[in-house]
Amino acid sequence: MLRSTTKTALSSVARQSTRSASTYGALHDFGTHHVNKGVGRLVPGIMEKGEGSYVTYEDGRKMLDFTCGIGVTNLGHCHPKVSKAAAEQCMKIVHSQNSISFHRPYLELIERLLPTMPDPSLDSFFFWNSGSEAVEGALKMARLMTGRKGFICMQGAYHGRTYGAMAVTKSKTIYSEGTGPLMPMVYTAPYPYFHQLGLSPDSTPEEHTRAALHQLQLLFKQQIRPDSVAAIIIEPLLGEGGYVPAPTSYLKALRELCDKHGILLIVDEVQSGFARTGKWWCIEHSGVRPDIMTFAKGLANGFPLSGIVSRKELTDKLKPGCMGGTYAGNAVSCAAAIAVCDAVKEEKILENVDVRSKQLFAALESLRSDPEVGKYLLDVRGQGLMAAIEFARPPQDIDIDLATEGVEGCPSNFAARVGKKCIEKGMLILTTSIYEVLRIIPALNVSEADMAKGCEIITQAVKEVAKEG
């Protein structure tokens, strides 16, 4: 009797939940209750529609989006050419499992990507679903290709939240806390960033390179021999760790070290690739050749797709069947990515990134030179439309941030408060890293007017937070 009563009660709750989900407020509450608590959310509400640089919520709010889904919708929301290509592919074939047969969009996407590669040696592709999976595949390939087990990753790096990717992610403890042991034989070297090297904010890229290479050489001497290292993995522009471009001198030195010791260089372009920094690939700014490159995010403008590219002479060492995945290289996602490649060229996206980047950095530098708030801006940095403002840490946090010793600190949680102000003013924006960093990731085809609007919102938000203290 008790069991029957309980079952009836549960059924009643389920019916009520379904009915209550028919209205906006109730649906939001329904989601808050039933969506896994491990998923965080920045803005309350239900995003209903996206178009270009704007998103509209179900309650009618329309917001300028300077997050692009964390660098995914690079061509703006619901780009008509991309959506049309995906819709047309849906009427041909949606799923063609990659271990059974080729499908046309997979091969045509390779045709589009080959001319964009940062080095002509990168000619062997595998498509997966997410950035984390691409990193997992790159790590697996590196071990198989070299017969070695060790990896060196960078302090502050973010490569994903699956187990291999978590092992080489060093940006925040939240991503892996309580989940160990992680993949073994992973060693961490400092990224060439003044915070991680105990240098002052006005130190030079050359100083960063020297200090970071010194620590890497110590790692070789004290923790793992170079001939045990399968690969070094690096983001050419540190993403989650603070939007920090790696000095060209450091990347070139890594290439030389890898060549000298038979180590593969994995370049993670998941966030920085696909025109985000003003070139097809961020690593092009340095002229350095990757052995393996991972990419995702902007590749298909919101459709799940990632890729790993390497040299055929290396991938020919792999046994058929060792790489795969049920949804890997989905036909609809590949069709969307082909349309993205075409749109980047036809709509002169790289040219727009160059112009809008200059507009953005001019506004940020103007803010830094403002006598009212400039003292709080520790750094303005980035490349293309992957930009950041770092604010000085508050004085009470100086014990964990020795590099800012002697710098006048800003009020506590400055970046988060600026981000909240921006949201209140109608613009989505994100913070990042363990430092006071505001990251700016607008659509690559953002208009001059919308860029000006976004810059004005940021400026107002910074001034208001500084005034509040």
From TrEMBL:
Entry protein name: Pyridoxal phosphate-dependent transferase
Annotated SUPFAM superfamilies: PLP-dependent transferases (SSF53383)
Secreted recorded as keyword: no
PROSITE patterns, A to Z: AA_TRANSFER_CLASS_3 (PS00600)
Cofactor: pyridoxal 5'-phosphate
Similarity field: Belongs to the class-III pyridoxal-phosphate-dependent aminotransferase family.
GO molecular function, one term: pyridoxal phosphate binding
Record organism: Schizophyllum amplum
Keyword annotations from UniProtKB, A to Z: Aminotransferase, Pyridoxal phosphate, Transferase
